Amino acid sequence: MNEQVDQGHLxxxxxxxxxxxxxxxxxxxxxxxxxxxxxxxxFSYREQKQLLAANQREQAASAAIQIGQFISQIxxxxxxxxxxxxxxxxxxxxxxxxxxxxxxxPAIAEITELDSKGREQVRVSRRVADRVGSNVDQSSFAxxxxxxxxxxxxxxxxxxxxxxxxxxxxxxxSGRAPNVVIAEVNxxxxxxxxxxIRVGNTGKAYVVDRLGVLIAHPDLWPALRRSDxxxxxxxxxxxxxxxxxxxxxxxxxxxxxxxxxxxxxxxSLGWLVFVELPLSEAYAPIYASIGRSTFLLIVLxxxxxxxxxxxxxxxxxxxxxxxxxxxxxxxGDLEQRLAIKTGDELEALGDQFNRMAAHLRESYATLExxxxxRTSELEKARDHALAExxxxxxxxxxxxxxxxxxxxFLAVVSHELRTPLNGVMGVLQxxxxxxxSEVQRRHLATAAASGETLIALVDAILEYARLEASAExxxxxxxxxxxxxxxxxxxxxxxxxxxxxxxxLACDPSxxxxxxxxxxxxxxxxxxxxxxxxxxxxxxxxxxxxxxxxRDDQALLRAIVRDTGxxxxxxxxxxxxxxxxxxxxxxxxxxxxxxxxxxxARRLTHLMRGELTLESTPGNGSVFTLVVPLGxxxxxxxxxxxxxxxxxxxxxxxxxxxxxxxxxxxxxxxxGHRAAIARNGAAAVALAGSQPFDxxxxxxxxxxxxxxxxxxxxxxxPLRPMPxxxxxxxxxxxxxxxxxxxxGITTVVSKPILISxxxxxxxxxxxxxxxxxxxxxxALIDRHFLADQKELLGASQIAKLHHxxxxxxxxxxxxxxxxxxxxxxxxLARFAHQLGSAASALGLVGLFERCREIELAVPSxxxxxxxxxxxxxxxxxxxxxxxxxxxxxxxPASPQPKGEVGSH
Length: 904
Known about the structure:
- The strands form 5 sheets. Strands 14, 15, 16, 17, 18, 19 and 20 form a 7-stranded mixed β-sheet that branches. Strands 4-3-2-7-6-5 form a 6-stranded antiparallel β-sheet, with helices on both faces.
- By secondary structure, it is an alpha+beta fold.
- It has 4 domains: 1-339, Beta-Lactamase (2-Layer Sandwich), CATH 3.30.450; 477-632, Histidine kinase-like ATPase, C-terminal domain (Heat Shock Protein 90, 2-Layer Sandwich), CATH 3.30.565; 650-775, Response regulator (Rossmann fold), CATH 3.40.50; 776-904, Four Helix Bundle (Hemerythrin (Met), subunit A), CATH 1.20.120.
- The radius of gyration is 65 Å and the shape is elongated.
- A hairpin with a 5-residue loop joins strand 19 and strand 20.
- Helix 10 packs across helix 25.
- It is built from 25 helices and 25 strands.
């Protein structure tokens, strides 16, 4: 194997590793040199400073000694004069000896001898005439008293003639009557001494007395002024006996210059000799030493940087070569080889690197062969897996399609079965006219019961198919909870009484309130639970209770259905809610049913985000607990009676159906508003232009001019103010919503019209808009809606509308049959819409929903499908009108057919 060495390519410019090594070594060398130099400079500085201070102290001490010796010599001379023997102590002898002493000591300017009582005996002076035996009393002089007290007296310095300094020195003789000799001493010697002290080139020395007054200075003027220096820190400290610092004291002299100051004390006199040297001169050697050290530090640092550069390159370049080699090998260049010749571990690492590259090349070649072999195997396995996946997908698609087909089949067949069954049930009810024999009546009751059972079975299968296909969606609105529960109980109470069971309803006062939710689904759940309890309770009774618990913005409904029936084993408590499941086969044979009631109730409960639980033991009955969260009603508690509006409105009602016009006008009048009727869009535009209206209630689907076009034309009229336009329609499809929004219509009321929804829509402020009222689904008739209409309009008005609906719907069925016979899709859709609109006026929701479905499906229907739809609508209309006849009859002819509430 050829080994290539691309040394030139690998020598890359220094990178981060090189800088890291370089900076680290330079920093280490600099730190070592800086610390060493710093310590050296610091200690040299301290030593030099102390040495300078010591030299100055020696100079000050030397001067202090000389001053002390000078004064001591004068004191010795005058003490000799006071100690002469008696035979040589005559005044004349004293005078002669004093003259000799003046000649011997030029510093003595005057000598005076006083006797023991302070009388002057002899005075010899260089300044005035001599005097002998004057007996002048000088006992009060400080010199005389001081000499008598301490045998020696040193007076303060004074200037004679303001030119030269003098001081008084007195000594006392010995003997019984000692005399006192007083000498006036010229201190010029001290001036000469201070002037002769050399402190560096610019330093100086001076002397202060025990009071801090300057008495000697190289510059005579400060001394002649007798400058008081006691306020300066060093003089004050010295006078107080505080010793000087070892390194001297740094201060400002009389000229304001910073100096290094030291002093010494003249012991016998208490004088202080100060020696000062300007800092600039005192520290000049130290600064020079620091400069030399700094220069040396820079030189050494530069040398260390060069050495660091060399070391860094020596360490970093091989590592960079290793890095570049690894990068090239990592990119696939396995022929790369390194030539590192450092003679150390890095060279050994480079050799290992080369061996690794060679081994990788061999391994790569082997691996490549294995990869080719394994890839072929994986491709075969992948093809097999894809084939299995495709087969599974096809099977899943077939299963999904089969399930959808099953659901559609169940829905279609169940719906197709309901239509003739409802017709049969209606005919059976009409046959019971009171003229039948007992046997015929019994046969008729048996047929009716069988029909009811069959309708209930079909309804359960249809509802299950919708739930399984996920076609159920919540349609929420505000409703009275107590009315819903009472209505459900009223519907089921006849069944319980028919089996000889008791039926109790106990609602907490908190239930008498308005809530927001889906009343239709909740009604279905309650009917299924109560119906299930009635079915499986042979004797005893049923009790229903309900409470409401308020939680912030929610109302938590807890409804409990108890029975004294056969009970359910604990191991079946969860399975009983599954599809097509009953406790056991004997129960199914005994009581019948499909096993879908509780499954549908559980699914609807979960759809409403609630819980449905069971507590039961065999033989002790069952307790079903329903917990469902409901919202708070937006408009507060729904009142049973109509409260007067805050403002009476003038409302234009536009609808092509006479039944809807009658119902709408009655509702508006009952709500306290004025109503005007327009039977088509053109009439609505004309009325809106001729008189002012506050609100326009516009039907959406009308012949010639529909609601959107009519609303657009009304908006184009110069009306002040412009009335609010509210669309009333049963078409809640997304495309219709988008079309209305594009036309600027945002308020929609759904058919069949609920009183609360209509009231909110027309009386709410325009900026709030009216909430949409959901459609009320049902098998045939929405009993709750019909009860509201009865309460609102009264029995006579309902009877009138009932008769009008019967005539109108009969004519529309004839029109629908004629249009279907020739396949006129447009007329069929229009007549189906009119029939559904008329049916919704009195709550015929089964007919209304089927009309809406057919209206939407007409464009894609074939001719046979149109004819089948027409027949279905005719049968459904017949069954719905029969059920309505029974509900509005003064005395019911028979128990209510179960088919009317089967889907609840």
